[in-house]
Amino acid sequence: MKFRFRTSLFCASSICAAVQAAPPAFAQQASPSLTQDIIVTARRTEERLQDVPISITVFNQEQLANRNVVNAQDLAAYTPSLSANGNFGSENSSFAIRGFAQDIGTAPSVGVYFADVVAPRGASNGLPSGDGAGPGAFFDLQNVQVLKGPQGTLFGRNTTGGAILLVPQRPTEEFGGYVEGSLGNYDMWRGQAVLNMPLGDRARMRIGIDRQKRDGYMRNGSGIGPDRFGDVDYYALRASLVVDLTPDLENYTIASYTKSKNNGPIQKLVAATEGGLGGLALEQLSRQGTGFYDVMQQIAQPYSRTEQWQLVNTTTWQASDTLTIKNIVSYAQLKQKMNAPLFGTDFEVNFGAINPLLAPLGTYHLPFTTVTSIAGLNTANQSTFTEELQLQGRSSDGKLSWQAGGYLEVSEPLGYSGSQSPFLASCIDSSMFQCTDPLGFLSNLDPTIPAVAKPIHAGTVNYTMGRTNFHNVGLYAQATYALTDQFKLTGGFRYTWDHSRNTSDQRTYLLAYPPNYGPFNPVQPFRCTNPQAATNNCVSHYYQSSEKPTWLIDLDYNPIQDVLLYAKYARGYRAGTIAPNITAPLNIVKPEKVDSYEVGLKTSFSGAVRGTFNLAGFYNDFSNQQLQVGFNAKPLSGQASTAAPVNAGKSEIWGLEADASLMLFKGMVLEGGYTYLRTKIKSVPDFSSFNDPNFDLAAPFQPGDPEVLSPKHKFTIGATYTLPLDESIGQISFGGNFTHRSSMLVNYTDRTNPDPAIAALSTLAPLDLLNLNASWNNVAGAPVDLSFFMTNVTKEKYYSFVAGLGSPSVNFETATLGEPQMYGARVRFRFGG
What we know:
Layout: H1 2-19, E1 39-40, E2 47-48, E3 56-60, H2 61-66, H3 72-77, E4 82-85, E5 94-97, E6 110-114, E7 117-118, E8 141-148, E9 162-168, E10 176-184, E11 188-198, E12 203-214, E13 218-220, E14 228-229, E15 232-246, E16 249-262, E17 268-272, H4 278-287, E18 294-295, E19 303-320, E20 323-339, E21 347-350, H5 351-354, E22 363-366, E23 372-373, E24 380-394, E25 400-413, E26 417-423, E27 426-429, E28 434-436, H6 438-444, E29 460-482, E30 487-510, E31 526-528, E32 539-557, E33 563-574, E34 577-578, E35 588-589, E36 592-605, E37 610-623, E38 626-633, E39 642-647, E40 650-665, E41 668-683, E42 695-697, E43 713-722, E44 731-741, E45 744-745, H7 756-759, E46 763-764, E47 767-777, E48 784-791, E49 799-802, E50 812-817, E51 822-832
């Protein structure tokens, strides 16, 4: 099968050559003119998009604005092959490209880079943070480039899935800028301002601010805490300075700061059945509102606060006509504090309804579990330092171009970070362990339970505190040689050393019974969650180290002008990780390795119809792929069900990508992209040796299973029409985009539940979304632009993620709700050049 598929890919390229098609790079200017070349930096140097043998999707700033792209999930909606998991809020979203997903606790499979520097780590204990594109990341950009497939030979970290490049606007030599204001539904308002100014003949500066606020679209029906969830409230600042130290020496500095505060992520309880905790969930469903966006929770002051700042300094020396030396150094800090209901549960225990004699105890509300910050600590608290020295050169005859360099990344904690998670506990203040255990109290009254099994503790507070250090070093070199005028051969090699070290303190606090609050036994208030750490006051130390080579071999062929055929083989690698919430042997996750094969075709054409057409086929063969599985809490363990990454045995991902941009006639541009994706787990390891005192491995993936976040079909089609008006009126255009995603597996757990309603939630239903926009630029010849946007025009109600809680021992499920229809209008005033 593997040989036949690889052969078919190479055969496909010759067939496509005959029809002059071209590979995956869905990108063109937002204006209807397709004559200008798009410049990308996918190989760390400026090149014409259609000349780069990589599958790339590119969006410029105008396209991002017209589509109202403000976060990772918005970007994924318009990009075939790209998915985003925003289960823990948009500021903590992770990406998946071609089925290469990132799970909690793993190194990213998709690297996110801003100004050639990788996104800072968050390194929180058990929660996702960092490694992505947070609030304010998508303003004042030159473009966004989505690179598909392993990019490990040239980019900072080794990633198996691809990379997303956020390229900011550089300062220019002209004075100018803009002020922009937006208003929309849910009381949305957004303001942006950018000022560009020269500072003499040898320096120029650009500063900008982005501020957005929007009410939530989910209604909280519990009467506890805020009225709305899904709100947005952030501001982002950026300043950049370019100084020409000499005619051949340039220094480019970017300083950025972002601060975000909202009511935190929440899911909705969507299904339950009798048994396990299903009875409590069914009672909540009877109180929960009937509206699709009605949720419940029981935290009085939920929030998610994120603060990040970063400095990037790039020095470029044109040492000669054939040699450029570049040094890129950066430092960033990311801090996050979260007090979040997560799963949207508000279970009720009414003692009077259970037994009139217990009525004096009253009624208690408790969650399945929540995330609460530890007093004085952040849930994420990490610094990231990177240093890269890069040399770029070419031969005097222009046939050979090359790059070489070294990369260092040191990410250290700014202090301990952690969280406290009440589990089935009713709390006044969980940060101070002021909680009680109503379900444990009821269990102790059950005459069918033997006295030897009592006292029973159902409600607990699970405390996790820790710190993680990362140290990554890489050496790389890559060269392209023109064998003839039509053939080019590229070879790249990289060797990487990755080290991580974790210290973790995990405790389970047993709680008093109603009407009392606090630890059950104040003298010995907790037990070690990991019994192996009991002799060390619950503190465990972990170390993970790996070193691997990665490489790339690529052959390009230009049979005629504006047609590129390529075939390449790459070895990708993703560092191993540590899962401190699970005991040995699954607490150490091995590195992931992938052999990637790709062929592609890129072409541009002109005539009555002008445009581009691109095609690519790919096959990826994995060893030790890092996949997330669920772990069910054992009865009376006092733990909530959890998840952690493990290594699959062998798996494969293969598929096809196509995209096109066409100017059908003057003013009319049609664009589209399509991805066909197949994923398959071929073998799984033997997990029989796993014996955790708190958890059982939930039914994991099986041979033949697909992978999560990997829809078989996804396509997007868009059209823009610009009216043929006189320049004195301005430029008026109308656009629309339609996206279809087929059904998609999101977890392996729910399908094990005998209740069909819960079992069905392991797979998201197909989704169709329509978005519209209109713009009037240079209104009446003035430097004023007006625009209107509407997303989810048909008001689709859909789940964007499902938690995977629905094992038979839990018997309920929660889901993340996709955004409803959003609309708004913008006005931009431009000044200067």
